[in-house]
Amino acid sequence: MSCRYHYDVIVVGAGHAGVEAACAAARLGARVALLTANCDTVGQMSCNPAIGGVGKAQLVREVDALGGVMGRMIDATGIQFRVLNRSKGPAMHGPRAQADKKLYQMEAKRVVEETAGLELRQETVEDLIVEPVGVPGPGRPEWRVTGVRVRGDAEYQAAAVVLTTGTFLQAVMHTGEAQTPGGRAGEGTTAGVSRALEHVGIRIDRFKTGTPCRLLARSIDFSRLDVQPGDEDPQPFSFLTARIEQEQMVCWITRTTPEIHDLIRANLHRAPMYTGQIESRGPRYCPSIEDKIVRFADKESHQLFLEPEGRRTQEIYVNGISTSLPRDVQDAMIRMVPGLERAQVMRYGYAVEYDYCPPDQLTAALESKRVGGLFCAGQINGTTGYEEAAAQGLVAGANAALAAAGRERLVLERDESYIGVLIDDLVTKGVDEPYRMFTSRAEHRLALRHDNADRRLTPLAARLGLAEPERVERLAVKSAEIEATLATLAARRPGGVSLAELLKRPEFGWAEAVAAAPELAAVSREAAGQIASDIRYAGYLALEREQIERRRQQADRVIPEGLDYAAVRHLRAEAREKLARVRPRTLDQAGRVSGITPADLALVLIHLEGRGGL
């Protein structure tokens, strides 16, 4: 007889999505099992040892504002902090931090182990346990998950399961002609979960991703490289971190050369992406060096960033040269880079192909439409990036706990968070390449800055039970400080014009305001930055609020969950198929489904009004 274990929520996979999912579910009071094939790789950075960047930093700050752990972990283990896009407006700023890779991993494991209600267990999941729900109606699940089976004749039973399997589903690694089963170097793969998903009718497709080689630092001539230091005033990611105390390390910059490009062109016949050995698509915005040479044939060089993987290791990550070329080509290519003539390769680059489930099969709560209680987050949903994974993990884990407790699901909207944009894009439009977050994807990015994520989302987190008391108290203090400061700015009127009005002018900054009202020097840097941005962009923010209100009026037109699109007269067959598959919650969301026209929406509206659906 097999062993049986009972929990409220089971999270499968302990990467960046799994850690956030398990911690979020536990914070909501669920008893959680976090299952991973290796307890020593919790939170491992499989590729670039960094967190944040343009678009991605907003996700990290929002995860933190909702009580998540990624921001605090990078603050504790970062070795270089920089704000990207400083020359642009605050909505485009992108804080980024290099991590001490192993230290970050150890911190993630510590956080998981110390979270009340959460148990970390080393298990390999081989199957899902599901049961039919009877006769399902339109838009209702056909199955319900009740647990998972693991290797070794044991079962874990729970009301909700979160899959955060990363790149490990039927994964194959490629380095030149060589192919090896595995989701990342040194680790295996699994096929059981893919088979279980196909059994319940969930569609599966393939994507690929890649990673560059790593070099031995003492074999590099750093005197020939440009130094890239961190910021003098490093900014933390977490709203709970007062300041970054640890000493920062430098990174370095070099470039490829025309000779390297010629070498790569001469060996494209050995590159898996160009021989047909790899047929799946990879991330367009993080291309391999082979892709760069082919797609940007007119460019004579590409920047390479040499980034240390930690304080106590000689390993250097070569950002910008992801590749699956054969080993001998990688050796020759690296030694043609200025400063790397004697470089020793510690790990070779490779590409990995893996299964994912197209995300239009999920609800906005990241719950499967076919299997009730089954949630998915991270690369299994066709995304790329630690930050995208963490954001989905938090939402999926919170909703798994809410589902297990019979509570209403958490759904974040596009106008209140980048996380809402991310999830809405996934479940409404689907993906045809690994999805990466950019500021351009958010139509209300002036309002969704990284610096005000706590003011936007922590009150919601507090209502749900995701935010700890310290976070709520800090926000209250900050909000009071902002209100008092705004009153001072409105009252002080040098020359008959208030300081608030003067701050709208490009030439008048916070330093000038402090000179006019010295008491403002006591305002915290964080509050001062948000006040200045809010005032300077007040007009644009007002326009955004008007747009949001108009959109919400349309969003209020709810589409009944079980609507039979086959009964909508004159609706095109393509529209029926797509709307029935996506199951949009509102007319607004329906309008974002790929291929749906205004005429299709009009027919759905006529049908709903005719049957009293609105």
Short description:
The chain is of the alpha/beta class and about 625 residues long. It has four domains: about 290 residues, FAD/NAD(P)-binding domain; about 140 residues, Elongation Factor Tu (Ef-tu), domain 3 (Beta Barrel); about 80 residues, Arc Repressor Mutant, subunit A (Orthogonal Bundle), CATH 1.10.10; about 55 residues, DNA polymerase, domain 1 (Orthogonal Bundle), CATH 1.10.150.
Name of the CATH superfamily of the largest domain: FAD/NAD(P)-binding domain
Content of β-strand: 15-25%
Estimate the helix proportion, in percent.
Answer: 25-40%
What is the distance, rounded to the nearest whole angstrom, between the alpha carbons of the first and last residues? 53 Å
Lateral arrangement of strands in the main beta sheet:
16-17-18-19-15-20
Find the count of extended strands (DSSP E, 2+ residues): 23
**Helices and strands: which structural class?**
alpha/beta
Radius of gyration: 25 Å
CATH architecture designation of the largest domain = 3-Layer(bba) Sandwich
Number of helices: 20
| Total tally of structural domains | 4
Mean pLDDT, to the nearest integer, reads 92
Regions with pLDDT < 50 over 5+ consecutive residues?
none
Please describe the biggest sheet, giving its number of strands, its sense, and whether it closes into a barrel: 6 strands, antiparallel
CATH topology of the largest domain: FAD/NAD(P)-binding domain
How would the global form be characterised?
globular
The CATH C-level name of the largest domain is Alpha Beta
